[in-house]
Amino acid sequence: MVHLSLAALASSALLVSAGPVKRASSVAASDAGVSVSDVYPPTGAVANPTLFPDETQVGYPGPTPTGVEPFAVQTAASYPTHTDIYPLVVPAASDAKDAKSFDISKYWGNLSPQYSVNPAQYGLANASPAVPDKCEVVQAHLYFRHGARYPTTGAPPSTFAGKVQNATQAAGGFTASGPLAFLNDWTYKLGAELLTPFGRKQNFDFGVASRQLYGKLLNNFTEAGTIPVMRTQSQDRMVKTMLNFVAGFFGVPEYQDQVNIEIELEARGFNLSGAPYEICTNSNNAYGSVGSTAATAFTKPYYEKAAERLNKHLSGNLTLVATDINAMLQLCSYETDALGYSSFCPLFTEDEFRVYEQAYDIQFAGNNGFQSPVSAAQGKAYLEELISRLNHSLITEWDSATNATQDGNEETFPLNQSLYADAAHEVSIMDALTALNLTALTGDTAFPPVDKLSTDHVYGASRIVPFGTQFQLQVLECQPSVPTKQIRMIVNDAVVPLSYPGCKPDPNGLCAYDTVLAGLIQRRDEIDFDHACFGNYTLPEYGSIHSGLAPSA
Ligand SMILES: *[C@@H]1O[C@H](CO)[C@@H](O)[C@H](O)[C@H]1NC(C)=O
Ligand SMILES: *[C@@H]1O[C@H](CO)[C@@H](O)[C@H](O)[C@H]1NC(C)=O
Ligand SMILES: *[C@@H]1O[C@H](CO)[C@@H](O)[C@H](O)[C@H]1NC(C)=O
Ligand SMILES: *[C@@H]1O[C@H](CO)[C@@H](O)[C@H](O)[C@H]1NC(C)=O
Ligand SMILES: *[C@@H]1O[C@H](CO)[C@@H](O)[C@H](O)[C@H]1NC(C)=O
Ligand SMILES: *[C@@H]1O[C@H](CO)[C@@H](O)[C@H](O)[C@H]1NC(C)=O
Ligand SMILES: *[C@@H]1O[C@H](CO)[C@@H](O)[C@H](O)[C@H]1NC(C)=O
Ligand SMILES: *[C@@H]1O[C@H](CO)[C@@H](O)[C@H](O)[C@H]1NC(C)=O
Ligand SMILES: *[C@@H]1O[C@H](CO)[C@@H](O)[C@H](O)[C@H]1NC(C)=O
Q: Span of the secretion signal (predicted)?
């Protein structure tokens, strides 16, 4: 979820499209902009287990000996990097040499598909998530986002579809030509909220990758005679994100009885670390949209120019404005992520995709990163859970979005797992990374600029909060250094240098366990959840704060 997106600000109405949704098979040529959808499975048609008994009834499975648990993070010669986004088809920008020289899918902010980020991004060019010499991974904490989904309810694409549909029905209609000709019979084919097929694959693939990398940590559960608890939230896509992850990790149908999945109840007014905005009031007003406001202002002149260019291909009752350009860029991302290809993508230049990405960078920095007054407060819940897990002690003070019912006992909140896996929304993960004080994610330039198109700011939404984003925290035992227990943190396969007081620069991103834990506790004590989430303080201007903390007055 992204609340208060660029367009939520541009048009406060939660509009769906103008008319009723039609079956895709009954659309006429004059139906441009109409919402269409298919329905599978057909009502009443269900699988027939009598005619088609399952494998438990049929028997004869053949030999099933197991091998060792894989532990590639420790044993492979190098770490597997993730670059492909099969089976999506991504065209070139309108002025690009080809689709390879400038990959537009890496400029879609939180709508980009996840990929392995260049290890040099945060200054540790020679660090790899593969375990450094003389170290062994003894525990891993995974925190990941759902894969690609449809737009959230009321997002810009459906508003744009409504505008096109209205134009079709208005006096004179409209005619599009040249690169926009497809718009004459374009219909709105996206649902809302749900994972797309590609999105399911992303979470399944991460489950497979996690088993290949960290499988051996399961031996710890085997020795203890117990199975892991893995956690997600109650929204349909969040449940299915975890189901796809565990299907990849444990296999189908093994996941059904090899893991306990804990579901956090996700709705306004509830406490949960995976969606802290449900309890943090100020996250849902102007305090929570410092970045969105700045991003909308930043894009306006660029998108107005793009609108001017594209309007030359339109006649009749349809005129594009800046917010339509934002919606059309989003349609490029969403249609590709959901349908595999989008005719909107080739309409835009490389620089327009750079502007689009930078707007997301500004938005996430200001809403959920170090330029936000409410981010660290929201991320405090995950921070406290992490401290609890690393310190092997239950939370005692309920001063964040943590949920005392689920986190208050070791049965539903185990403290001794060798492997943790939590799924969440990207805004919650970004809030958590801010609460964790991963300042290296913003680099020295501190925040993406709002006064110019920049190619050298470090903070990038597509690198931190893409669909399927992956945060990994490794606990390692290293010889012969003292103390031997070390921690490092990894965002989309780029190792992030740690800046807790006492952490020394380390080429592999290592810092002593106790030093990190002390830093996390210090950070926790800096964050005033009640003030940030419920207080009345001066609305900070984008760029004026650098800590993710609310100003005191
Ligand atoms: C389309 O027309 C309807 C009915 O007049 C109106 O309520 C809606 O706001 C219009 N949508 C857009 C995006 O202009
Ligand atoms: C567009 O449609 C509106 C509403 O039907 C009408 O008032 C206006 O004159 C039309 N404009 C053009 C250029 O056709
Ligand atoms: C963790 O602790 C609980 C409660 O003490 C125990 O039941 C469980 O077996 C332990 N699990 C592991 C993996 O050590
Ligand atoms: C904590 O989670 C439980 C289980 O989902 C839920 O019933 C309860 O209302 C939540 N508590 C708060 C304070 O939100
Ligand atoms: C860490 O655990 C110790 C020992 O159980 C406990 O005394 C201390 O309060 C815990 N610290 C935090 C921050 O929870
Ligand atoms: C829910 O969060 C609030 C902070 O907003 C906290 O005061 C309260 O104790 C929490 N309640 C539970 C049951 O987790
Ligand atoms: C399992 O791993 C946890 C966390 O690293 C550790 O505290 C515990 O001792 C291990 N248990 C066994 C049985 O190896
Ligand atoms: C957070 O990181 C900054 C460096 O960016 C450092 O100066 C500060 O001490 C850190 N604070 C904590 C609590 O880790
Ligand atoms: C917040 O404080 C300002 C300035 O003191 C005041 O004008 C405003 O009404 C207050 N808002 C709320 C919600 O209390």
A: 1-18
